[in-house]
Design a protein that fits this description.
The complex is a heterodimer of chains A (about 200) and B (about 375).
Chain A (H helix, E strand, L loop, with lengths): L1 H5 L1 H11 L5 E5 L5 H10 L2 E6 L2 H9 L4 E3 L14 E7 L8 H11 E9 L4 H8 L24 H10 L2 E10 L2 E3 L3 H4 L2 E8 L3
Parallel strand pairs in A: 1-2, 1-4, 2-3, 4-5
Antiparallel strand pairs in A: 5-8, 6-7, 6-8
Helix pairs in contact in A: 2-3
Chain B lengths: L19 E5 L3 E2 L5 E2 L2 E8 L9 E5 L11 E2 L2 E5 L6 E2 L4 E2 L4 E5 L14 E2 L4 E2 L9 H14 L7 E5 L1 H12 L6 E5 L7 H15 L17 H15 L2 H7 L18 H16 L2 H13 L10 H5 L5 E7 L7 H13 L4 E6 L13 H12 L4
Parallel strand pairs in B: 5-10, 5-13, 8-9, 13-14, 14-15, 15-16
Antiparallel strand pairs in B: 1-4, 2-3, 4-10, 6-7, 11-12
Helix pairs in contact in B: 1-2, 3-4, 3-7, 4-6
């Protein structure tokens, strides 16, 4: 995916920091497998990618990554509870229709989940909307008519959903152009990364 | 540059090949408890075994396949191996890197010991006395062939359909002797529907008056009508529904209804031709035996159906491939294998190929399918 390639660095590093060496990691929407390759190199994880696009399945395999072709819209049926330490979804959550289902599934098959997504609430996006235009930016690089994104949400929206659905936010990071954002990330971050677990664990 | 003389160009990438025969004098105890005192296996090899003897790839055949996987015979250039499109120099199973082996399974009818071979105890063909063999038995016999060739461990074992089941069985029977398994268009066990199709095929053979309880050889005949029907039925299940509609539709040979029971629709002509062709060379007892091996295959049987537990001993990495239009072993069946391998914490990759040729897609030279196998094999150390 173009978006994850452009924004690969900041969320890769954050995700690596949240994953212990040797863990089992499932990467949903793994693209060409570069995150798993990065995690294998930096954290020696045992990784498995999931992709629906046959070209990405092939690219992952060329990169020596274990990858299974599967439609995330159907959930993760057949994958056993707790099969993975971490389930990662980097720059893909906004491309899935069944948002709640996939979050539930991630925390069923994994002990923890990590998601990263473009923040619709980013100041430049707000300015575009205020000017009467759909935002097009580094983190939302598509025109409205060719975007693979099907869900548009802000960090604040996402946090509301987590609170309503018993998902505990362990950590979060906001980035703008690769730089960490500390002040009001819902306004100042173009990209968000969350570390999640089931509340009450 | 054009070759000066087309007749000198090799008809296959591998070139001319010759089958070889290995004799095994040590008795083989089968899963059924029966013992085969001695047997022959016919095999072919392509490429060179490296000095470390580490680059061997075993190709397992399906119901009607044989050891003749690739290449052609010098005296019969039209007899091209059944999976020639995937094996050869520069092909997905690259014989410049790997030493590829094809073997006719025990019970087969292409030269290995089977029902049509002579039983040394009686001096007559084994016929119905040939014991029922299973996928586990084949894997055991294949391992002895590996011993014979000085191969401790296979870089990969690959097969489609029933061949894929053998590759899967290898990983649990001899985990230390296989590093990669390519399980293509397979299933972890047959469904009731699959078994039903097999039994109709068997009934067609068993009720043919020329079957003679399996001892038809001594009557100088063969149950060709039954075998023909079995093949016609099987063939329907190997093809994609859309492919059949596209290729034959409702096209009539004479252009209009003849109100008779002769061949009218093109599909009838095709199936009868396929049935006749098959019945002319394939052994009916081998067909019976192969379908039973399919029916019995179920690595989770002794684990109360727990496939995760059954696959636990495996140490190999896996590539599982299915085809969207395969309704005999549909993609969901491959996903059962994939899910169990994930549960058992094995390395597994899975591709679902959009190909219109149904179950037989695994034999087709589909660019994406071959690219997947190639990409996987490029990461297999020779």
């Amino acid at each position: 995916m173009n978006a994850s390639a452009v924004l690969a660095r900041p969320d890769f590093e954050v995700i690596a920091g949240w994953i212990a060496p040797g863990e089992r990691v499932l990467d949903l929407g793994c693209g060409d497998g570069s995150l798993i390759r990065y995690l294998a190199q930096t954290r020696r994880v045992r990784g498995l990618g999931v992709e629906i696009d046959p070209r990405n399945v092939l690219e992952s395999m060329k990169n020596g990554i274990s990858v299974i072709q599967m439609d995330l819209e159907a959930g993760l049926a057949g994958i056993g509870d707790g099969s993975f330490d971490h389930v990662v979804m980097s720059q893909s959550l906004q491309m899935v229709h069944h948002t709640e289902q996939i979050l539930r599934e991630m925390l069923r098959v994994g002990r923890e989940a990590v998601v990263s997504f473009p923040n619709f609430g980013y100041s430049l996006h707000r300015q575009a909307i205020a000017a009467g235009r759909m935002p097009v930016s580094e983190s939302l690089p598509y025109q409205w008519y060719d975007s693979p994104n099907v869900r548009f949400f802000t960090m604040a929206d996402f946090e509301d959903l987590c609170a309503q659905r018993g998902i505990e936010i362990m950590e979060r990071r906001g980035f703008d152009g690769g730089r960490l954002v500390t002040e009001d990330p819902n306004l100042n971050a173009s990209e968000a990364v969350y570390r999640l677990t089931r509340a009450g664990r | 540059m054009q070759p000066l003389d087309n007749t000198t160009a090799d008809v296959t990438a591998v070139g001319a090949v010759e089958p070889r025969r290995a004799h095994f004098a040590r008795p083989l105890e089968l899963k059924s408890g029966a013992v085969i005192p001695a047997y022959d296996l016919v095999y072919e090899t392509y490429g060179e075994l490296n000095a470390a003897r580490s680059n061997a790839v075993l190709v397992c055949h399906a119901l009607s396949g044989s050891h003749h996987v690739a290449g052609h015979y010098a005296d019969n250039p039209k007899n091209v191996g059944w999976w020639d499109n995937i094996v050869g120099p520069g092909r997905p199973l690259d014989t410049d890197r790997f030493f590829v082996i094809g073997v006719n399974n025990l019970g087969g009818c292409h030269g290995s010991t089977g029902p049509s071979a002579i039983n040394p105890a009686t001096g007559k063909p084994w016929g119905a006395d040939f014991p029922v063999v299973t996928v586990e038995d084949w894997v055991q016999a294949q391992a002895r062939l590996a011993d014979h060739l000085g191969i401790d461990s296979f870089a990969a074992v690959i097969g489609g359909s029933l061949g894929g089941m053998q590759a899967l069985q290898w990983t649990v029977t001899y985990p230390a002797r296989i590093r990669h398994a390519l399980v293509i268009a397979a299933a972890p066990k047959l469904t009731a529907q699959n078994i039903a199709f097999n039994d109709v095929a068997r009934q067609a053979i068993l009720t043919d008056p020329d079957f003679h309880g399996g001892h038809f050889y001594e009557h100088g005949t063969a149950p060709r009508r039954g075998l023909r029907l079995a093949r016609m039925l099987g063939h329907i299940t190997y093809l994609g529904d859309d492919q059949m509609a596209e290729k034959f539709g409702r096209v009539l040979r004479a252009g209009s209804f003849q109100f008779s029971y002769d061949v009218e629709f093109e599909i009838e002509s095709y199936l009868r031709y396929q049935g006749d062709k098959f019945a002319a060379y394939f052994d009916a007892n081998t067909y019976l035996l192969m379908t039973k091996a399919l029916d019995y295959f179920d690595p989770a049987h002794h684990r109360n159906g727990d496939l995760v537990a059954a696959l636990a001993p495996a140490t190999a990495s896996f590539l599982v491939v299915s085809f969207t239009t395969d309704w005999r072993f549909h993609p969901g069946r491959s996903r059962e294998i994939v899910n169990a391998l994930i549960g058992a914490e094995k390395n597994v990759s899975y591709a679902e190929i959009d190909c219109k040729y149904g179950h037989d897609s695994f034999l087709i030279d589909d660019p994406h399918y071959h690219a997947i196998v190639r990409a996987y094999m490029e990461n297999v150390a020779p």
